[in-house]
Amino acid sequence: MRIALAQINPTVGDFAGNAAAIRDAAARARAAGAGLVIFPELAICGYPPKDLLDRPYFAEDARRALEALAPQLEGLAAVVGFPDRNPAPKGRALFNAAAVIEGGRIRSVHAKALLPTYDVFDEARYFEPARTVELASAGGAALGVSICEDLWNDEAYWPRPIYPWDPIEAIAAKGPRLILNLSASPWVVGKDRQRLEMVRAQARRLRLPFLLCNQVGGNDELVFDGNSFAVDATGRLLAKGRAFEEDLVLVDLDRGAGDIRDAEREEIEDVRRAVVLGTRDYARKCGFTKAVVGLSGGIDSAVVAAVAAEAFGRENVLGVTMPSRYNLAETQSDAERVARALGIGFRRVPIEPIVESYLKVFAEMFPGKGRDVTEENIQARIRGNLLMAISNKLGHLVLSTGNKSELATGYCTLYGDMCGGLAVISDLPKAMVYRLAEHYNRAGEVIPRTTIDRAPTAELRPNQKDADSLPEYPVLDPILEAYIERLQSPAEIVAGGADPAAVAKAVRLIDGNEYKRRQAAPGLKITSKAFGFGRRMPMAQKYRPPM
Question: With a threshold of 0.90, does the pTM exceed it?
């Protein structure tokens, strides 16, 4: 049995475009001799469709697109993900389903049993879970069909399974030749390796081959890595798709062999690929072809500019430096050096005259009040206004440049440097930004050494340094990871060796700045717990975790 895994890049709601991608991949699979082709979860409508699923006509349009597609898939069998109507009078109106298509028509439909409601997932909001499982038949073989989360409840792998039953065990008990999984599994650092090892463990335990086809591409904040694969009944890797690219992966189960792409990469290279893909797809799927980046001469904006040059093409990126009296000649020079090294457009727009006009108004509005953070923040807000004016006038997408360490602690200006259409590195801690900068410099200096070596500064007042307001980043970042991603209490973080004063300050800043993050530009998810719709913390609350 020769099977193809078609990891495509669907766009949410683009039924015609997604159907065309499915049709084209099926044609290539058929030409390569495959008798069965597998597509990702909800491939016909794209994942995640979110509240579009609440609109009855959305699922109806998806079904019509699938039924129109089925006759065009003659010559091989296909398994395609789609939202299906629940005919029962009770329960949610939809199933997250997989259609088995053969002979030009839908032969069977199989619903997802486990519906995740943690982190970025909220599937129980829309779908009814399957209560039983049945095998499918395609090409004369009995197949077990599962969908993404169905794989993620193996009692032998997870110390605390979160669902009351394991549909994979139930499928295996029915005696299939193999188990298929249609996935839309978002990537975070290390997720692809975890996914593969988890499935390998199940294959060995159940003594069955597993084939997983995963979506690729960016949809809103989420980045999907592809990395589709097949393993045999011993857990041996038979086939593996490319990371962060569309791919058609062939595997021959009778021969025990298949396509294996992409050697192991460094973690930071996966981070680079993820943010480039996420940025490119967010822009493309939202209709943007050009981007603008405020270049401060600092490392964050330099890294965002490097990502933008890859994602948009250097000819489609504009870097703008907007110096005030506090910007050093060195940082202004570094901003221009980055633009030249990347080959992007560059403009210098001094903001001092605009700042002076604001200060005059402030003097009249706030007589007797000395200068404070108000005057600092107005510089960032002027810059944000100028970047948004460029977006309005020229149609460029504004890429905001704040990192996760800044966003976590509120070390950013609301309606200033936080403004933009996409926050490219908002889930990259400062340490990871430095690693990415060094990675970009491997083939030659793109980001000036002076930018990397200089102490981080917002340059909003004389001799300002980030460390004046925050713990040093090597101290801060591990605290943020422990508190935000690993959900440790301050007491546990201190017991792990962190400085108590730094922990207390970091936790206070994190908990006190939820209102800022709620108004931030959407950011690409890279770590296990990103700010955004996957982290639901109250803004008005008085809980203080134990120190």
Answer: yes
